[in-house]
Design goal:
115 residues, alpha+beta, Alpha-Beta Plaits, four-stranded antiparallel sheet, two-stranded antiparallel sheet, 2 helices
Length: 115
């Protein structure tokens, strides 16, 4: 089993969610986060005063998946989260972790049955 964590732009959330539900993903966790990478932040003007925003708002999506569906799910996230044909700086990142165990609290089922 694997845990996929994707950090994407806010306005791409609906596209990614739709893409994942279209291929049968039944659950995900969505968290609002802030951070920066190569984009480094940007300048904004508020009431005539310019200031630097160092941490940009992003969305973090977490999905637990079986190992055999990993590549399919990664492709869907990458395609639906990308801006335009070739993408842009700030489109985000995808991280993949080994998932040791999953337990469904209600039933006690473990492993892939719990996903």
């Amino acid at each position: 089993m694997k845990m996929i964590t994707a950090v994407i732009k806010h306005f791409k959330l609906d596209d990614v969610r739709k893409g994942l539900t279209d291929i049968g993903i039944q659950g995900m966790t969505v968290i609002e986060v802030k951070g920066f990478g190569r984009q480094k932040g940007h300048m904004e003007v508020y009431r005539g005063i310019e200031y630097e925003v160092q941490f940009l708002p992003k969305i973090k999506i977490e999905v637990a998946v079986s190992k055999d569906r990993l590549d399919e799910i990664l492709n869907v996230i990458q395609e639906t989260a990308r801006s335009g044909e070739s993408g842009e700086i700030g489109d985000g990142k995808i991280f993949v972790y080994d998932l040791q165990d999953v337990i469904r609290i209600r039933t006690g089922r473990r492993g892939e049955e719990a996903i």
